[in-house]
């Protein structure tokens, strides 16, 4: 077992949020990717559930210094969602149902690196962990894996998200301890 520097192992799945937990019914949930030409690519919950899904295991690392290893998930790869979308942008801003945002290089969402996850440990993802669906980008600190995800806006420039505007590192690599600006 190898942990990133400064992390400690946990067996539970701590819940940290910056505000109230949204309750998003699947009959009104939708996921939207807005491309660089401002075209909207929209999936309803039923359309999303019809997409090819993957089961995968991921290690999670939180900026608050806990790590959870070998967590089991099910979701749709961002590669699947971007198959029909011209990804000519270099940056992405992820939006959620609670007005949270986080920024990522588009390259970190593609190449089997990120999923929209809707099941955890064999169960539908509960609201406290971001259900009905959350972004999961396990190679970065968990704040980049936005809960209650509703869409991705492709940009030609980097635009800081919620925590990045409040002093968190712009990228968030746990192996380099990129917790805060200047790390």
From TrEMBL:
Signal peptide: none
Gene3D superfamilies tied to this protein: Oxidoreductase, molybdopterin-binding domain
Oxidoreductase molybdopterin-binding domain span: 19-163
UniProt protein name: Molybdopterin-binding protein
Domain of life according to the entry: Bacteria
SUPFAM superfamilies registered for this protein in UniProt: Oxidoreductase molybdopterin-binding domain
């Amino acid at each position: 077992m190898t942990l990133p520097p400064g992390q400690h192992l946990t067996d539970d799945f701590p819940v940290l949020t910056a505000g109230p937990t949204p309750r998003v019914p699947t009959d009104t949930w939708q996921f939207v990717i807005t491309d660089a030409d401002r075209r909207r690519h929209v999936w309803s919950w039923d359309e999303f559930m019809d997409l090819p899904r993957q089961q995968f295991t991921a290690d999670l690392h939180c900026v608050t210094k806990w790590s959870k290893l070998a967590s089991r998930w099910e979701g749709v790869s961002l590669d699947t969602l971007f198959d029909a979308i011209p990804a000519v942008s270099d940056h992405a801003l992820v939006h959620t149902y609670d007005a949270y945002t986080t920024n990522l290089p588009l390259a970190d969402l593609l190449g089997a690196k990120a999923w929209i996850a809707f099941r955890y440990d064999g169960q539908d993802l509960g609201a406290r962990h971001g259900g009905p669906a959350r972004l999961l980008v396990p190679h970065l600190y968990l704040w980049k894996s936005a809960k209650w995800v509703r869409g991705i806006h492709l940009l030609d420039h980097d635009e800081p998200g919620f925590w990045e505007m409040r002093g968190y590192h712009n990228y968030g690599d746990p192996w380099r301890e990129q917790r805060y600006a200047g790390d």
